[in-house]
Amino acid sequence: MKKSILIVEDEFVVANSLRLTLKQAGYQVAGIAASSEEADEYIQKHKPDLVLLDIRLNGKRSGIDMARILNAQNIAFIYLSANSSQKILEEAKKTEPYGFMVKPYREKDLLVALDIAWYRQKNSTEARLLQEKQLQKQLQEIADDTSSDARGKFLRITRALRVFVPFDLIVSGNGQLHSDQFTDSAYLRIGFDEFQYIGEQEFMTIAGLDKNGLVKSYPAESVDQMWQDCFKMESKLIFQLELSTGTVVQYSFYSRQRDLYTEKHTAILKLFSSCLTKVTEKMVLTESAVHSKTPVVGRPDHEESGHLEFNGIIGNHPLLLAALDLTKQVAQYNTSVLILGESGTGKEKVARSIHSISPRSDAPFIEVNCGAIPPTLIESELFGHERGAFTGATERRKGRFEQAEGGTIFLDEIGELPLEMQAKLLRVLQEKEINHVGSNVPRKVDVRIVAATNRVLEKEVADGRFRLDLYYRLNVFPITLPPLRDRKSDIPALASFFANKFCKEFNKDFNGISPSMTEEMDAYHWPGNIRELENVLERSVILNDGKSALHLKQNLIGKTAEPLEVSYVETLDDVRRLQRETEKAYLVSILKKAQGRIRGTGGAAELLNIKPTTLESKIAKLGIVKGDISGWGS
Questions:
Q1: Which SMART domains match (predicted)?
Q2: CA 319/CA 309 separation, integer angstroms
């Protein structure tokens, strides 16, 4: 059966051109709508498989407004726009489109965008249906379980719903506060799979109020605000159920992230309202068992606050836990993953975790640093080459994709790939085949791609340095890792982990971290993130006598480049030249401070908080030679 596509475009010439191209390609065109109001009628009548949506529609509702409606109905859409500025792309990103096309576009661009959209739709639909089936099964098992008390059932509901509705706090009850009755109970998330139970007594202890104080502080109808204020939550979602007895019970979801909840979250709760009502009725019947005494439920604290499923990732900050939730969800599928975050935030560890808990865990995990390989060699490195393909190719060689057969390839610093290679990578993603350099024979590969970058790809696309189609093909399932400055509550656990690690390595006793060092670490901005923290702890352990607590031996201050001569800028070429000179002068100044050493403690790579291979690549690109630096070393 032909796939149906609705065109929502107020420029008739553009819309008609799209219609002709789609029909020629074998698609069924549901219609052309010039406004969101017309689009509503087509959607109700035809329920299209996909919508081509002008982002700047005339009328009461824009394309962005229309996108929210399409999301709620699980209809895929591709934006059409006259430009791809960073602002437009970032605005579009919030609505999770399946693609983005910039006018004017070629027939080939449209067909590639549609291929990518169908891939994204297939993977998201399959994942959603599988998760929904699992949730249905879990809720039925909870309802049928006669051995668990009310608290136990609530905990199992909490874990089951977490996959679909993210939260830092979940509350169940009637949402009313009375002087003689407090029906709400809650679970506060304190770790990846750890929850703290909070009933009336626990809440009053945390809030510092007695029963009379609770009633006086909050009106009966504002109990949800009470929870939000007490735990400093930024967003909430309230979902009510009416039980067969006529009793109304509500589930309240709270998050520390702003504007987290959307129509999608409400839609999934509505989908399972029948099952949720059934299990809630069973929970209410055993309500008398709620007051048993076990405040923390879940795995006990790991001695290093690490997560056993996630390759030693340390911390329990809500932003980190949200990223780990996504990591666990996507690991079971073959979809490509894009890991975003600043340098030093742990992108490689997340990539390895995706592989290690996936069905591909027994196959190879191959890591490629795209920024460390010269542009002239990157194609051969990734796809392999035939004998005689270029000077020095004395034998046939497999590339990294073939080495990763059946497993996972991790393309770190994907934003560094040259545009020509980006086009070839897109073909691999679409066709699942490669060509050796020097050969026209395609070779099928079964490899999962996980990519990572510290760049803002929307800006890279807007500036013409990254392909828009590749961005949407990779961005099927993005995971954003927070910088360390946004998860400072994890610094003590991370510092303790690194301190223990280096004390064992250097055969020294660990006597704790001094209060002054703890204060300085908490006050610092950490531009180099976790990698910089690790370097600081290694240095502190090396300089420690093994008998006293660790202290900082030098101030935590940012590194700055040596002053440059002011150059007169007149043209774009002048800007590029000055940018190159500035970066070169900065790297030379750091290399001088490191006495020419790139690697090891005190080396230039450590001072810059980047990988040595990345620094070596930059040195080669900028043409820095030994003569620029005295005492050149490695």
A1: AAA (SM00382), REC (SM00448)
A2: 17
